[in-house]
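Risk register update: the risk that structure generation would not scale has been downgraded. Supporting records follow, first protein first.
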Amino acid sequence: MAEYRQRLNPALIRRLNVARVFHALRLAGAASQSELVRTTGLDPATVSTVVRQLRDEGWLTTTTAPSSGRSGRPPTLLTIDRDAGILIGARLEPELVRVLATTLAGETRADWQGRPGRSAADALDTLSTGVEALLTQLGLTWRDVKAVGVGVPALMSHAGRVAYGPNLRWRDVPLQVRLDERWSVPVAVDNDSSAAALAEKLFGEAREARDFVVIAGHSGIGGALYLGGRLYRGHGGYAGEIGHVRVEPEGRRCGCGDRGCLEAYLAERALVAQLRERGRRLRGYEAIAAAALAGDAEVLTLLDEVGERLGRVIADLIDVLDPELVVLAGALSHVVPWLLPAIERVEGTEALRAYRGRCRVKASTLGTEAVTMGGVGLAMEAVLSLPSWLVDQEGLLAAPGREPTRRA
């Protein structure tokens, strides 16, 4: 790691130091400067300089620690100021635009949702309406918005252009450019599952994982690969389309135009369609989960069948990638308790023997907000002008109080 840091230019090192202190405070909630020295691995002078900068920018507040009974003055504790500004996170779906306003530390302050309309322009109008509604609700203005992050269920280029979003029916939409034209604050856009993976790393189940996979379900099924401590995007930026792995040759028609994709069985509308064919009219993942909880035999049978298909995909991912964790996120998390038995059954027989039991499969604790909180994570990265993976090269996004992992 020391050699790696020597290759960074001074401006990047300064941003990295700010991000390290910021994330250490975000995770700890409150910390003294001496505690920040320990958790970040930075020297006291550097921590003091960063703290001074963050205080000058109005990001920090100070309190006095409760008395410990020892002699001497109690230490001063630093916290990220709840009123220093807000981050906006959003997800765009074919039938829903969901928007969150959070503190700089990612604590939710308000939320809003609305219908997107038919076109990309309509969806962006709805998104703008939602942001304005949140500002009105909070009594804030655009001067209080530090950045906006948006997750979209589509193939996204590195430059923020939607190449193809089959469920949205968008093709070749310069999303980043259009949002930059609308707003003067920093804006970041990404694939929804990639955003969900960032949320799991910053706020969720994967804070201590360096190799994990996210499979997220809403209108479709998306995936993201977080490998070697950073998001893996592939050559064109489109890696991770797990929903379009073929699970049934010549199977059900998928929104992408092919047949037999995992999405054609596991996406919300796909489950609803399959249940309708079995005489059950349920409106979405949440209603399906309620029926499963009530013991509906048809629902339970279908979820077991779909869980087996998902289990085979996960077993293959384990064989190829050897991740330590697979997180099932988004609205899909509603039905995960009824998918897990089949996933574990298949994984226990179809993954390579050496890998069996090594990978945990869990429902996201962020639930349906995984993508929206991913938007918050994108906004946080935009404010810090630094990707989170770079901050995490020494394990600094792990649980509060954990000592940094030292690497040569």
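Supporting record for the second protein:
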Amino acid sequence: MLNDFKTFIMRGNVLDLAVAVIIGAAFGAIVTSAVNDIIMPPIGMLLGNVDFKDFFVSLTGQSFPTLAAAKAAGAPVIAYGQFLNAVINFLIVGFAIFLMVRAANKLQKPAPAPAPLTKDCPFCCTPIPIPAKRCPNCTSQLG
């Protein structure tokens, strides 16, 4: 059983998947930081010094100055500002993956065309196996 597990783990696609998950997690942290620390502050400044993380709706009807204050009070909230940040994160990650897949596809050579298995009989134009010495359709001798 241990040898089967070792064989399973050491296959190339499992290792590739593990590496992809680790790199994806690191890339996700970079994108989250880019959205929260670089992209959203200028957008918030253009909209009147607004912090998108603090966009929320309190379901109790009470008014709270920040999302943290509402959560500290135990009020149920819809934190649509954090959702907006998550959507922007997703779009950036999706676009980056699209660019990487597109670049990888350009680097791959097209698969070679498979060797033909048949040829046409020069007398009746019927497809026949390449090693054939006589056409099964018209019985002509082939060179």
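Strands lie at 57-58, 77-78, 118-120, 127-129. On this basis the risk owner (M.S.) recommends closing the item.
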